[in-house]
Specification:
The protein has 3 domains: 147 residues, Rossmann fold (3-Layer(aba) Sandwich); 86 residues; 108 residues, OB fold (Dihydrolipoamide Acetyltransferase, E2P) (Beta Barrel), CATH 2.40.50.200. The longest helix has 20 residues. The two termini are 46 Å apart. A hairpin with a 4-residue loop joins strand 6 and strand 7. It contains 10 helices and 18 strands. The protein is elongated and about 80 Å long. It has 414 residues and is of the alpha/beta class.
């Protein structure tokens, strides 16, 4: 068994209290409970869980690495989609089958590939799982913790030496971007012309047959749903063509939301005159501290939509102020935290071209964060995002809005 001094052994969305405490608390998805419960007497660790697979594996790994923990108290609101709390209860009661699936779990894909039978057996013997899922009353939970501490049976002792389960390194085959796209005229289904209707605030996509005969028209505001509509109707026959259309529709959506000029097959640019920009919707709300700063760069003719902060402005920003930054995601330490590097806009093409800096940045987001130009599937390592929200005391951005720029951004390494 690993030394508790090196505990916890895997990273996660948790706070450590007293490693010698007998109680671990899982608040399921109720993140607001972590801080009030994390440092109560007798609590070793308090964290959340969103998934019934990797999240549960991390919980089991950290608990079995610390023999002082004898109780796992589940509280807070369980996810109605992923059911990680119910799946934890099922694991404690029934274990997993030969395929490493949790028996009787309701969670989405409750599969624990790295959990050995020995560790599963130790987890079920070591801890008593207390199912208080749904409870969010802090005084009631604190009283329950005191009761568990009072009946602590002492450190878990086993006659077997079980090696601490460590996360396996994920191995990926490296591939490079780029390739040859077939000319669009070779798609036997035809070609598309994409424009933006600013009066109706819609993207307009018109489909022509190879002989230039008008065929179909689609109007919408979300690039992803429009592309799915084309695939549903069978109007695209080449994967490269579908990728091209996804990129162009995403650019059109960004232009519509940010009041930029959209021309198919061209980089996004600021609209030319204040009169033209007056009809553009301002989907991204300018943070007060940025919008009113005398040295904050603004897009010509767009007083309501400033450029993202420069590196100098970011470094000078103080906790509590609103910030507006663009960054490239390098890691996701937990489901609600994004780590990355700061991107600075290029002066010639400020909404499409960025210079990568060495400045590290962290952004926190949640289900309440407004997503623009995509959905949660676009929030991953490698994504290019624009985050708007207040700066916390630990210099993480608490994102109220995230604009997903991955498909339209060009990054210049500096």
């Amino acid at each position: 068994m690993s030394s508790v001094s090196a505990w916890p052994v895997v990273a996660g969305a948790y706070e450590v209290g007293d490693p010698q405490g007998p109680v671990a608390v899982c608040v399921t998805t109720s993140e607001k409970l972590i801080d009030p419960l994390a440092h109560l007497p007798g609590v070793a660790i308090t964290g959340k869980v969103y998934t019934a697979n990797l999240g549960i594996e991390r919980i089991v790994t950290n608990i079995t690495a610390n023999p002082a923990i004898r109780f796992l108290l589940l509280c807070g609101k369980d996810s109605p989609l992923f059911h990680p709390g119910q799946s934890l209860v099922a694991l404690a009661e029934h274990g997993m089958d030969e395929q490493h699936r949790i028996i009787d779990a309701l969670g989405y894909d409750p599969f624990l590939p790295s959990l050995t039978a020995a560790h599963m057996a130790q987890f079920r013997r070591q801890v008593e799982v207390i199912d208080w899922i749904g409870e969010e009353d802090i005084p009631a939970i604190a009283q329950r913790i005191r009761e568990l501490v009072a009946r602590n049976p002492g450190r878990f002792v086993t006659g077997e030496e079980i090696t601490t389960m460590m996360p396996q390194e994920e191995a990926f085959t490296i591939i490079r971007p780029g390739g040859q796209r077939e000319p669009l005229q070779y798609d036997p289904k035809g070609y598309f012309v994409i424009t933006v209707d600013r009066e109706e605030e819609q993207i307009v996509l018109r489909h022509y047959l190879p002989d230039h005969t008008p065929a179909h028209e689609m109007r919408g505001r979300v690039a992803g749903s429009m592309l799915l509509g084309l695939l549903r109707e069978g109007l695209v026959s080449q994967l490269s063509h579908a990728g091209y259309l996804g990129e162009e529709l995403a650019k059109a959506q960004i232009a519509l939301n940010l009041g930029l000029r959209y021309d198919q097959d061209r980089p996004l640019k600021a609209r030319e005159t204040p009169a033209q920009s007056a009809t553009a919707p301002a989907a991204v709300e300018a943070p007060p501290s940025v919008a009113t700063a005398p040295d904050a760069p603004k897009m010509p003719g767009k007083s309501k939509i400033p450029l993202p902060m420069t590196l100098a402005q970011w470094q000078a920003a103080t906790p509590g102020s609103s910030v507006d930054v663009t960054f490239s995601v390098t890691d996701q330490p937990s489901p609600d935290v994004l780590a990355g590097t700061f991107l600075q806009s290029d002066e010639a093409d400020p909404f499409s071209t960025y210079h990568r800096t060495a400045q590290a940045i962290q952004v926190r987001w949640s289900e309440a964060t407004k997503l623009i130009m995509g959905d949660q599937s676009g929030i991953c390592a490698g994504a290019v995002l624009r985050a708007i929200g207040p700066l916390s005391t630990d210099r993480a951005v608490e994102a109220h809005q995230l604009v997903i720029l991955t498909t339209v951004a060009k990054i210049i390494e500096t």
